[in-house]
Amino acid sequence: MELIKDIKNLEQKVINWRRDLHKIPEIGNDLPLTTAYLKKVLDEFGVEYRTDFPNDSSILVTIRGELDGEKCIALRADTDGLPMPESLDLPFKSTNKNMHACGHDAHAAMMLGTIYTLNQMKDRLHGTVKFLLQPGEETGSGAIDMIKGGALEGVDFILALHNGNTTDELDEGKIGVKYGSMMACMDKFTIKVIGKGTHGAYPYMGIDPITTSTHIISAIQNIVSREINAVDTAVISVCMVNSGTAFNIIPEEVEIIGTVRAVSKEVRAYIAKRIGEISTNMAIAMRAKAEYEYSYGPPPVVNNKEIVDFAKQSAVNALGKENVQVLEKPILAGEDFAYYLEETKGAYVFLKNPLYVDGVAYPHHNVKFGLNEKYFINGVKFFVQAVNDYLK
């Protein structure tokens, strides 16, 4: 059943909204330009919304169906960008030093398209739709603020979508659903290795924290390759190593910062413990000292089977069976959508729409990351269909 009557007109609106948002990427929980733009469009729609959350860049839109019904479905889109420059020479290129390199501009635009459409259909709805326009996904804190502000009150379940080149399993233009664990935790670890500084010509007079750090970095990689069952999915990545002031000075300290990704709570906890044990004892073996800190971010994204069944059928209803795939493998990216799933039932889905640049589909968080705009409408169709299927 075709629910969106003027597809072409809506498709161009969504593309235009996304391009406008792409020009003004902001990071974290403070998105004044993005929030002002979204509120301006929502005011044009004439819909009800509130922003009285712990941060004022969160927006909760509510559409109340005009027919009797107590059901309530929630849809979520993230709105923040990343602190990195953009290399693509697009007509709507970022106008500041940030970039929408994870596709959140498109998420917000697709949600605007969904709100626009459902607001025109509210005379056909039995119940309520809540739309969570959320900052701070990249920092893993935006969902918590919306939950604290009561965004999920009365919600039966929640859906969200991520677009881009998320997984090789999924074919271009299609919706992918996944049962069970879909995405990993998003944790951070910091190891400070403390040695004794000295002249680079006299290493025996000091305790080298750099050499010690190389042993620690090498050893913690063995956790995944030698201590975790090969069928369990996990990654440990050291992403920052900070130390030194000159070529001939052995420094006092080295700071090692990295991330842990795991799709099960048990593996997550084991890795957190073992990094601490290895770094502390390896430092002692090298006559140094290690201070270890592990920060738990969003947990793994674990979809509810009942809601995945529902989302899969809605995607089929919206796009046809040939455009919906069931995914077998989780991915190791993280998502603070996981916090919503700890509070209520829900499911996260993927839309595959990479933009090829010189024949390459660059990954998320890359300066050449791009999106194929012609598939945005598929995301809108999915969301509109899901609401219609639940509240019709």
Automatic annotation (TrEMBL):
Residues annotated as binding Mn(2+): C102, H104, E138, H162, H365
Keywords carried by this UniProt record: Hydrolase, Manganese, Metal-binding
PANTHER family xref list: METALLOPEPTIDASE, PUTATIVE (AFU_ORTHOLOGUE AFUA_6G09600)-RELATED, PEPTIDASE M20 FAMILY MEMBER
Top-level division of the source organism's lineage: Bacteria
Cofactor binding, per record: The Mn(2+) ion enhances activity.
NCBIfam families listed in its UniProt record: amidohydrolases
Organism expressing this protein natively: Parvimonas micra ATCC 33270
Cytoplasm listed as a keyword: no
GO molecular function terms noted in the UniProt entry: metal ion binding; N-acetyldiaminopimelate deacetylase activity
Protein name in the entry: Amidohydrolase
InterPro entries: Amidohydrolase, Bact_exopeptidase_dim_dom, Peptidase_M20, Peptidase_M20_dimer
Cofactor: Mn(2+)
GO terms classed as biological process: diaminopimelate biosynthetic process
Domain (Peptidase M20 dimerisation) ranges: 188-279
